[in-house]
Amino acid sequence: MGPNEVLKVDTFGGLPGWVLMLAFLALMVAASEIGYVWGAKARVDEKTQNVFPTVSAAILAVLGLLLGFTVSMAVGRYDARRLLVLEEANAIGTAYLRTQLLPEPERTELQDLIRHYLNVRLSYVEGGIDAERVRKARAESEQIQQQIWDRAAAFAQKDQRSVTAGLLLESLNNTIDLENSRWTAFLSHVPDSVIYVNAFVGLLAALMLGYGFGMSHHRHRLSMALLIISVTAVLAVIVDIDRPRTGIIKVSQRPMIDLQRQLAPKR
Predict the structure, then answer these.
(1) Which residues have C-beta within 8 Å of that of residue 147, sequence separation ≥ 6?
(2) Which domain holds residue 70?
(3) 177-230: per-residue pLDDT in tens?
(4) Domain membership flag for residue 3
């Protein structure tokens, strides 16, 4: 994994969400003003003016469907990441408990490695979109995984019919698989094109609504403000949920933190 691969998961190059939303809000206001000016200058007959509200309503309906569909996509990915955190914490905890069935010195060695692995996994999450920090954390995770597996496999080879060894290897394999699953979930985002289409249709809706007000030479500021704020707010939520490391709405690491506290050496 190269450093650039980590940065690519952020659609907007790591810009803060509030900057993106302020920019989009400004574009929505500009679109509505441009539409109003065009509408005020347009010379249309009464029949066209009567049809225009229907066209505007259709565009707003399409915008609503797009936003609803995109929110569903973002929330689905958020839920998947949240569940994987819990599953990984459970898998690591199960592996640790099963090491208690091992004799010394294997038991202490594996328990120390599992605690260290848990700490590294938490530092990996804290890396945000820092490419180098994430790369190092993942590389260290893979190294510890190999060390844990080698020690567990060496114990299993001493007695290939050992039930304890089989159960331990099963839980360790599940732990390794979940690390890969979480990385895949981290890379899984709402496609850029979907977000861009939402933004484009939102701007088009603001333009059309402003155009309609311009034709009637009556600016209804409250209606325009509600549309702009609503669309911007929904897009802000979509982008924030879709950025699991840098957004305000983050996937809670509480299961991993609780497990870290439970596995801490007793003093």
Answers:
(1) 113
(2) 17-263
(3) 999 999 888 888 888 899 999 999 999 999 998 988 888 778 888 888 999 999
(4) no
